[in-house]
Amino acid sequence: MTAGMAADLAFGDPRRGHPVAVFGSAVAASENRLYRDSRAAGTGFTALWVSAAVLAGGLAGRAGPVGTAVATFSAVGGTTLCRVGDRIADALDDGDLDGARATLPSLVGRDPSSLDEAGICRAAVESIAENTSDATVAPLFWGALAGAPGLLGYRAVNTLDAMIGYRSSRYARFGWAAARTDDAANLVPARVTALLAGLLSGHPIRAVRAVRRDGGKHPSPNAGVVEAAFAGALGISLGGRTVYPHGVEDRPVLGDGPAPRAAELRAAVRLSRRVQIASGLLAVLAVVRVPSPRAESVPVRS
Question: Global pTM?
Fold first, then answer.
């Protein structure tokens, strides 16, 4: 797991042939044949692909440390997340609003065409906060619990949620199981992320206050907790009117303070990196096996 995390820190996501992209392409192709507008069909579809990912993780685990390292590198994606955040901040600092808008879809699914600097930064910070949990803390959490099957199984759950876990007319029923499974898989990791964000920002009381007051207002039981923690930790406010391809959502306001700008976006990136490194250390510590005194050899009487 340490080697896989180090590879992500050094290289980020490969531009071509990323295992998650290959998985997503296979899911999209099969959806065309298996889609039915029902929860039962969606549940079977989700179970099929999560099982396939867990099986692939089992095969990777049998390959030993190299297999687990590859599974870790495939499952985590925090470095690319932060690099995109920095590119958006760079464009805004250079006055290149169109360049920032063009980069934003790498992070979020909303329409950037009408967003000003504050709207772009708000969207980017919200995505960085949520994906700090989804792209690093959560896969490492499940990797610490279940090894390579946990890593790839979680990544499958999260990818399915990103693809079909919407409340649109097409996916309200078919994507229901994917969305609910993702909610369950992220329940603990999101709160670990929020805790680390508060502690590592130097403003834990502000973060806790924002989570307790605002975290439950968000439509997602996990994204709201993480976004509120980042908002409180950074002294900004998030939320508001959000335009998606499937419609417009009025999100509740999270945190206190002004809307984020490029400086706050950079601060969110720095906080995300600290949380990712800390979660990697915690995951490795969680799987270290300390020899028990009872396991030591006992002299045999002659």
Answer: 0.91
